[in-house]
Design goal:
Layout (H helix, E strand, L loop, with lengths): L35 H21 L20 H5 L26 H23 L6 E2 L1 E3 L2 E5 L5 H9 L6 E5 L4 E5 L4 E3 L5 E5 L8
Antiparallel strand pairs: 1-7, 2-6, 3-5, 4-5, 4-7
Length: 208
């Protein structure tokens, strides 16, 4: 008697597929360090789908495409040259603060005294050079308002404008505002007004 031949079951032979044939990473796009866990999951899923298709006799499914991740530009050449380097955005440099120039503080009283001395000196120089008897002093003639002489910027011109007007008997000139006021006969002198220079016209007789 021949011994019964034992039936030997041979496992089905499946074609050998290389990992590169079903790689889930496209060769056009290098793997990103931030997508490494996701790529592993996709790779495992692709192999499971492959085994299921081979067992059932179906064609192998196409690998699941992976959307490439576009990295922002490297902050430096060194970082761009290192594979898998983590992109670290650089903090912007603080802008240089431009300090505005602060104008020097000018004392108004000092400015007024300097202007008065300058204008009094100009009147004195004119009086000496002209040889006339021109009256001028510190102070202002109050009341007797007549009119403001427009376009006059110095006391010498203010005195000339008053002298040429028959209705003007006194003139006032503000040393910082460069303002010329013509006055009529009535009124009086206030010598305490240190920011004014005043004078009488030649027609003034000293009587109100």
């Amino acid at each position: 008697l021949k011994p019964e031949s034992s039936t030997k079951t041979t496992a089905p032979q499946f074609p050998l597929y290389t990992k590169s044939a079903f790689s889930c990473v496209s060769p056009r796009f290098p793997p990103s360090h931030s997508m490494a866990p996701l790529n592993k999951v996709v790779a495992v899923g692709s192999w499971m789908l492959l085994l299921a298709a081979v067992t059932s006799g179906q064609d192998a499914p196409a690998p699941v495409p992976v959307i490439p991740v576009v990295r922002p530009p490297a902050a430096s050449l060194d970082e761009a040259d290192v594979p898998g380097a983590i992109y670290t955005p650089k903090a912007p440099l603080p802008s240089a603060k431009v300090e505005e120039a602060v104008p020097p503080v000018v004392d108004s009283d000092v400015e007024m005294h300097e202007a008065r001395a300058r204008h009094l000196g100009a009147v004195e120089t004119h009086a000496k050079s002209s040889g006339g008897s021109m009256h001028y002093q510190q102070g202002a003639w109050v009341y007797g308002d007549y009119e403001v002489a427009e376009g006059v910027s110095d006391p010498v011109e203010c005195a000339k404008v008053c002298e040429a007007d028959a209705e003007c008997f006194h003139w006032n000139f503000h040393v910082t505002l460069n303002k010329c006021d013509k006055k009529r006969r009535n009124g009086g002198l206030d010598s305490d007004k240190s920011d004014w220079i005043m004078g009488h016209a030649s027609r003034w007789s000293g009587e109100l």
